[in-house]
Amino acid sequence: MPDLNSPPLVNVQIDGVWHQFPKGTRMIEACAQAGAYIPRYCYHPKLSSPGNCRMCLIEMGMPRMGPDRKPELGSDAKPIINWMPRPQISCAQDVSEGMGIRTNSPLAEECRRGVMEFLLINHPLDCPICDQAGECRLQEFSVEYGRADSRFLENKVKKPKRVEIGPRVTLDDERCILCSRCVRFCQEIAKDDVLGFVDRGSHTILTAHPGRRLENNYSLNTVDICPVGALTSSHFRFEMRVWFLKETKSVCTSCATGCNMIIGSREDVIYRQTPRENSAVNSVWMCDYGRLNFEYLTSTDRLLEPAIFDGTKLEATDWKKAIEYTALQLKHFNGWDIAIVASARMTNEELWLTSQLAHQLSVSLIDVVPRQDTGDDILLSRDRNPNVNGAKIILGLDAEPGTHLKRIAEGVAGGRIKALIALGEDPTEFGITVDQLKQLPSFVMMSILHNAATPHATALFPAAAYAEKRGSMINGRGRLQRLNRAVRSPGDARDDWEILRDLSQAITGSNGIYTIEDVFKQMAGSIPEFDGLSLSKIGELGLKLIPTPEGTTTPLPPGEPVDEKVFEREMKRAPK
Amino acid sequence: MDAAISHYPPDRKRSAALPLLHLWQEHFGFISDEAVYAISAKLGLEPINILELVTFYPMLRQQRTGKTHIRVCRTLSCAMAGSYRLMENLCARTGIKPHYNSEGMHNPVSVSPDRNFSIEFVECLASCGTAPVCMVNDELRENILPETVEQILSNRPADGLKAQSVHPLEHRLVFKNIGREGWTTDIDCYLRDGGYEQLRKAVTMSREQIVNEVKTSGLRGRGGAGFPCGVKWSFIKPDEKKPVYLICNADESEPGTFKDRYIIHQDPHQLLEGILISCFALNARTAYIYIRGEFPEGAKVLDRAIEEARAKSFLGRNILGTDFSVEVYTYRGAGAYICGEETGLIESLEGKRAYPRIKPPYFPAVLGLYMCPTIVNNVETLCHVKHIIAIGGGEYAKLGRPNNTGTRIVCVSGDVVRPGYFEIEVGAVTMGQLIYDMAGGMKFGRQLKAVIPGGSSAKVLRADERFKLKLKQADGSMAEREIFLDQIPMDFDSLAAAGSMAGSGGVIVLDDSRDMVWALNNINEFYAHESCGQCTPCREGSLWMKKITDRMLKGGGVVQDPATLKSIGDNIAGRTICAFGEACAWPTQSFVEKFPEDFAAHAQKSAPPPLPPELTPEELIAKTKIPVTPLAHDPGWEKAGRAGII
Questions:
Q1: Closest partner CB to B48 (pick from A92, A152, A209)
Q2: What is the ipTM, given to two decimal places?
Q3: What is the pLDDT of residues A324-340, one digit of tens each?
Q4: pLDDT score for A115
Q5: Pick from A462, A479, A459: which is nearest to A543 by CA?
Q6: Are the Cβ atoms of A122 and B540 closer than 8 angstroms?
Q7: Global confidence as pTM
Q8: Domain finish residue from B459, B494, B511
């Protein structure tokens, strides 16, 4: 039975072979699906098509109509195609029934060679020092359509260089090919119309008004979509050749949106984070705040070794001693003497082990710290915790996160709580004073960085940051996604789940967990939402785990269908 | 300002950007930073939106001019008539050091030390028949002898031009009143001559009847492409739900064309009547007349005509007592040739840079102004509509030749004795009759070398070429005949068959004193300056071609230059968003192909001479100086200079 929701298919001839595509498929996309990738500069699937670069010219034809207004059929029972004399752009039209496309004809190739030459005559050809080198579309298509020699004997047009067009973006107008992708992005996605063209003809330059800057929170997307080296990231500029970067697929943890991203690192140093396409989460965009939020990983404030309080001061030690000491100490307390403050920045696996620890210690006072800030309706969520939904499900929080924090603070102040376990959160940020922390008989802390509370811990565990570990999280719209390890943790800092597992084992003996997959398996066995899942089943694009919570502040990806069910539908591949 | 904004739909205030910039410039003399902020705030835009316009349209200036601002036309017909020498003389008299950048940009404006005068070169002012011309502030000065700059500088009014008498070969329909004794632009004069009778007649007809009359008449667009007007009109659905717009394209700027200027300035009501009939036929409630910025007087004439017509109930609410209401507004361009392209014009009218739109999907008749169905017609075409209603489509179709019906205005300029405008029955006059009989022939002792038959973008025709034309015999069969240039009938199909086009009807004649490389360089400079810069081939190719011909003229031509020029043209034509690609490629393709000897003479070196040392961007910025290159490459005046004549 035909699926009523999916559009009807149309027959299209591409390079002599007939294919079927859903109606509404752009010609350039249809060709790519048929294996004929058409070079392009100005076309971007998520933006409007101005058709200005003229790189995607192809030969196109429509079926020849007989006197009965029906297509005439050839000897192969396929429509006879009337080819148009002039080449057409393939980026602005959808395929239609009986259409013919030639992507590799002599005319199409000659057109590309012509456009390539035009694009390069006034280009500075400074590839050796250009940041875009290695991922530049001019370089890419020059391989097939460029000339070995130049016929251009004139002086090149001079344009501004090294323009700081915004706090994070640097512009080189001589490299710009005026494709207008960045201008359209600012108008259509970022809703901040700051970029434009001034002057005319070959002297046209891309710029912002002198009184305004490209400083919106999405400015670095213009760098991603710039097909050449005109817009470069001021942060990444001249830092690393892109071909040396190891690319790790992960998700951003700076807010509840959980934008899919690629971490670019080399030898345990992150150089940049760029968005990775996921039409259900972030489309192909990412905010500047999220993508630059990795500097703290190499901060001098990183905790590098575990430490325990020896009665006089916090003394560095090894992991075995630190864990044994902490387990011994915690076993002295009754469950009602202990409070656990976990974090909604922890992965599901870490939260599960936390809930197991609470169970072993009979702790009932457990909560996570809420983190609200300003958001927008593009990508940034007001909820800056990446995994509140995970915390709610796994820790079984019945109320909103943070409801019990006041009680915990009062308990510490009043002396009713004798042991405080703070996992990835700083207690001084939710109403507990340093003096109160000093009075606590036991204050176990797991943290990435030094903060106001760390000097007063009785046991201090250096933990791993988001790019240093694996695990899963549930974003603000209920999508389960995976984190991957791009770099190793510095010093003796360890994966959080390993610390928690060891602590739990030291309290009750072996729990049979050796890998993070084991943690997930155990969790999937106990929590119905995760039933039947494993880390590998989540996949690179994640999967919808729970319905979108009411009143979520996590926006839908800009420019994508408002109907979320579209994302859940299985992608249909057109039969050849 | 608010009045200007009220001409556009409330959610389309952006359209008022250009009118507001004009108002500001008229009041303050130039567009300051403050203006950019003020106007963008007024229209709810970002400052960059306004800055984009200020830097796109050459008429908008970002610096103050002298008390008297002189704009000298430098395009082909004027250049042939000595406008470069005129510029030299003006600079010498006013003490201005010409800032002349050879890369096609005319900025910045050069101001004299006493700030009394400023001079700039501009592209075609659409008065090629009275070349050379310049504009002194807003006033056009025609037929200036380069030696008589004093008259311009002292701002003495020009002598009245003698009206052109009607040539016996002419058939005056649209131009009936141009240069007519005692004819004035006011409505009473027009009414005395039977004015607005056709509008009265039209409103009693049904819409389909009018469209059918226009279809039967076979009227083809007079703007350049020659598209059948009735077919264009029939793209508008009779039951269209969205508002329909009619735009009159009065952005006459194809070099060699100067017909609309006379209709607008001398017979505005004829145009208005044509527009109103067309609006009625198309059910368009709003019409805009997009008039080029260099016609400030024309815009005033039209505005006055609109008010007069409103007072007599020919436009406005319930015209002539019917239930049909229509508003007509003028919209002034600002010196961009590309606004003559219909989708570029629409973008400009929407208050944006005049970047032509891709077709498909943005066919004006479907997704035009404000994404509504829009018809864009040339001034002359709309005037013809009035005459079609007067005599009927069938009768009109008997004028001219089949598929080339009616009359059309042909403008002749360049090296002829009597340049001017001639309204002929299409195809009834041959090229030879036009040049030798009507335009007075070649100047003394000169031979015809080449003709550009349809505005500077049409392919050039060589005087000694033979053309093979298929002609219909008396018995209806087709026969191929070889004919000379003089024998080509002046109609759409014959000129197309001869390998060129009738275009906008601007015929530019070149005699044997002209160097074709020089002529092509002048045309190339025009297109390099006017390319909007949106799509790659035209943006990069037009300036490249200009740089090559420029180098050839300076003695740096290398043997491969002609072939390179030809292939650049080939890589532009047919691969751009709009027809500007063809417009800038055809001259180069045809000049190089048809005059190989002229090009070979300039392309003899085996390697290019070393380029002048390049300044780094920092140096360019630090110096804020653009190197001064010789003003012209006119071999005539260079020789004269050496001989000590000037």
A1: A209
A2: 0.92
A3: 999 999 999 999 999 99
A4: 97
A5: A479
A6: yes
A7: 0.93
A8: B511
